[in-house]
Amino acid sequence: MKFDIDSYREILDTITRNKSRSFLTGFGVFWGVFMLIVLIGGGQGLKEMLQSNFAGFATNTAMIWTQNTTKPYKGFRKGRYVSMVENDMTRLRQQVPELDIITPYMFGGNKKAVVGEYSFDATVAGVDHDYVRVAPPVMYYGRYINEMDVRQARKVCVIGKEVYKKLFPGGGDPCGRRIRVDAAYYTVVGVDYKVNGINISGRPDQLVTIPYTLFRKTYNTGDQIHSLAVTGKPGVVMSTLTDRIRTVIARAHMIDPTDEKAITTFNTEVLFAMLDNLFNGVNFLIWLVGIGTLLAGAIGVSNIMMVTVRERTTEIGIRRAIGATPKMILSQIMSESIVLTAVAGMSGILFGVGVLQLIELASTEDGILAAHFQVGFWTAIIATLLLSLLGGLAGLAPAWRAMSIKPVDAMRDE
Questions:
Q1: For residues 192 and 137, is the Cβ–Cβ distance under 8 A?
Q2: Angstrom distance (rounded) from CA 228 to CA 46
Q3: C-alpha distance from residue 240 to each of 135, 186, 232, 269 (Å)
Q4: Residue 147: which residues within 8 A CB-CB, separation 6 or more?
Q5: For the whole prediction, is pTM greater than 0.85?
Q6: How far is CA 153 from the centre of its chain?
Q7: Which of 57, 79, 279, 338 has its CA 20 to 30 A from that of 257?
Q8: What is the pLDDT of residues 141-190, one digit of tens each?
Q9: Where are the transmembrane segments (predicted)?
Q10: Which residue from 267, 247, 268 is spatially nearest to 256, judged by alpha carbons?
């Protein structure tokens, strides 16, 4: 459809003459689009925030640890506690070749960390150098525990964000400085700014992480392993390996292989699948509510256009009498509907994006964004196309009625 400048002026003039009705109708469309954009962006941000609780963990990761047995086995009573040992890592490598990474994780509990006059109740953990491949850190200063630290049992540590802020309130790079944890001194080699993650032994920002070989010497744990973190090779589904992993460890320690309490496996793959399914449902509800609100706004546009056509019966009749074709009348009414819907809808999109941007800024701490509360480019394109379609549909019925008005009938009504 082609229009000249006078046609557009007439459209705007008609909308202006019906200010109150146009405002109410436009507000309905504006609010519907605004709600849709905010719901989509908010849902995306909420999903990222929940996923950050598992930040850095691969989807095919499992954590393994032992507890008291709940079943008797080969003459042993239930209630025994059996700890894993370093040889269990060798057994898993040999008997479960589908595993990619097998790395220990040691729990040290809460210990008082001290630097000068400052102190903080931190959590001590011992890791191997390849633990970074299971849960990558967010290094703000320095580096993470490396292979030489583990081999030589160096007295070094990586501190979490909260530990850093409490022990070094003046800021600056703490690498090279020493901290005391209980009676042992460690040299800081890095600051991990990760604040979310699966809490294995404590919050990531409250950890003091040391080489696990040093942990064994410091806390005299021998060859005991508190827990193991394992990942599957590419293409391997971890849930298919958990029973075999449990069986390998159980047989070495005379535990019933079916005793899931004695040898506990925490499979992140299942959690990620549950999270995805949850937000698939949430996204469906968001679109359902948003589109429903848009349809309500489109119905409002259609109603106001019907009223406008009824009030302009004489005008339309006169235009028909002086030569206006039904196609011209149809184009006029549908254009008014599309313009009204488009202006209100695009305003809703812009305002929604602005609100989401403010939410993003509010969730940013120390220059690190907690989550992206924004809609994607194609989402905005789809919303725009949907608005155009709704605008056309909303004006279809009023335009058809206007097109069917005959000059004689219009004069008679007058």
A1: yes
A2: 30
A3: 21, 41, 10, 11
A4: 129
A5: no
A6: 38
A7: 57
A8: 999 999 999 999 999 999 999 999 999 998 899 999 999 998 899 999 99
A9: 21-42, 284-309, 337-359, 371-396
A10: 247
Lookup: tokens for 186: 């460690």
Which residues are CB-contacts of 155 (< 8 A; sequence separation ≥ 6)? Answer: 184, 185, 186, 187, 210, 214
Q: How many C-beta atoms lie closer than 10 Å to residue 323's C-beta?
A: 7
Higher pLDDT, 302 or 102: 102
Using alpha carbons only, what angle is made at residue 284 by residues 380 and 58, rounded to the nearest 5 degrees? 90
Q: How many residues belong to the chain?
A: 414
54/66 Cα distance (integer angstroms): 22
* Token pair of 128 as six digits: 């191997």
Cα dist from 382 to 72, 184, 304, 379, 389, whole Å:
61, 60, 25, 5, 10
Q: Which residue, chain included where needed, has tokens 């040898």?
A: 263
